[in-house]
Amino acid sequence: MVKFLQFVPLFLLFISCKDPGSKTEAKTERYNQSRLNRIATVQRDIIQKGLTGSNQVLIFKDGQIIYDSIVNSGLRGDENITDQTIFPLWSMTKPITTVAVMILLEEGKIFLDDPIEKHLPEMADPKCQHESGNTYPCTRSVTILDLLAHRSGWGYYPRKSDGQQVLLSDLWYKDLEDFSRSMVSIPLKFEPGSQYQYGINTSILGRLIEVITGKSLYEFLKDRILGPLEMHDTKFHLTDDEKVRLQPLLRNENGVINFYKHKYNELSYLKSSEVQLGGAGMVSTTKDYANFCQMLLNNGSFKGRHIISPTSVELIKTPLNPELENGTFTGCSTGFSLFILTDPVKDGTLSPKGIFGWGGYHGTLFWIDQKNNLFGLVMDRTSQPATDVFRKVRIATYQALN
Predict the structure, then answer these.
(1) Where in the sequence is the signal peptide annotated (predicted)?
(2) Prediction pTM value
């Protein structure tokens, strides 16, 4: 172990930067390439501050990649990012599952006001919890809309495992049915639909998809989303070969920067696991997730392939909840597991009102900007807060737009 501050002056010598302009011809009338290249300075800065290790930023505009830069840290225990590097998506799994729900909605197989027990009978007669701690029968059922908007009353329920706080693990359950039934025993923190609380809602929707389609969640996602979007490295499991490609996790432990390949995965990523958590469980590559972002930017289509309708894209990015007052998405409301920028002044990054996106537990981030025909994607793996990273990358991006 090496104290982080002891090697800060030296590690800059080992940073490698992929040529940001290597994959595109600059359209100078749409953006300033020299300003855009300042993002590399941001990428180095967040390494120096111990916010992340090796990281990649990709900016796509007007049908082409205008910036694609990998900055490798050279820190002991970290690994260089390549086009084959795999990242845990954690909550960036949620938008993928949400799109799957939109497919079922478009096909008339579900309705937003469906009570969840219509499809998952075990969830009938939910219990709510009073502020006093006492429970009582909720006045109404949880609906599909409540789950999509994180207004069900279910949150996250971390557990202690080997002395560590674990947010969520597939090893706690036999399959998604077992997961769903286990949630029934947890009282809702408030009346369904009355408040916002981020939590396991999208993973319950993953079970709903299984019941409606008669397929595993992964099979349905492959058939309707991952296959058409050419996201062949996006899945719920890792083979032995793929484990080698997994990016290490940065942890700041009492001022010491350490990297861990598998110790803090929390999820098993076993191919045999039947607990495919639609709110947290997938891994992916930069290229794969960029294809998903491109589909959202294009109002539901990718290379002429229809995934969902523009109406569905509009629906998932509709602000539904009060603005978040602090954290990564300050100045934003939330929709269906997406942030939507509602107050550009409070956000302070030059980003226009209406951009939308989300992030993951281990530092991955994306945003879609349909006004400027642009999306941005940040891929890294860190346990550190992502607020500074996300703000600085966006500031550098929008400073470059003419």
Answers:
(1) none
(2) 0.92
